[in-house]
Amino acid sequence: MKTKLHTASTYNANRTVETVIWVSAITLLLVLFSFTNAFSNTIQFEEEQYVDDIPFDTEMVVNEMMNPEFDFEDEAYIDDIPFNTACITTNCNYKKAVAAVFELEEETYINDMPFNSEKVAERYIYNNTLSFDFELNDESYIDDIPFDTFTIANCHYKADATMLYASGM
Fold first, then answer.
1. Residue 11: CA atoms inside 13 Å, Cβ hemisphere, count?
2. Is residue 140 in a domain?
3. Residue ranges for the chain with pLDDT beneath 70
4. Separation of alpha carbons 132 and 116, rounded Å
């Protein structure tokens, strides 16, 4: 009967052999690829004899295809369009529309409203403003004033009150 130790060591031995095979195969492939790439740039072709079997100049054909020259004859001027073709744009139409002067007659005032519309608008705005629910949250107390404001306010209030009574108001 095999022990656990024997099974574990057999597995490790098989795993080591498998790893060695994989590493050897990858190394062999890398060496093969490096040699094929190293010699790929050194291929030399033999010089062939010139055969003049094309009956035309190929350089001239390519130049004519790549750089065509067009010679157009001058045409006579024909004035068959009755408007300025340079001024067919939105900007030009806008300028024409703005240039037109419209003369409208002054309308007479008609007092057909038996109420003051300004007062109606004021009342409407006032009622809409009152319909909003304003919820104000209490603010936390911050003691950032370095003196007693209550005492100062009372002193000024008493001084103002004394001056008012002294002046007879």
1. 7
2. yes
3. 1-11, 37-43, 90, 156-169
4. 26
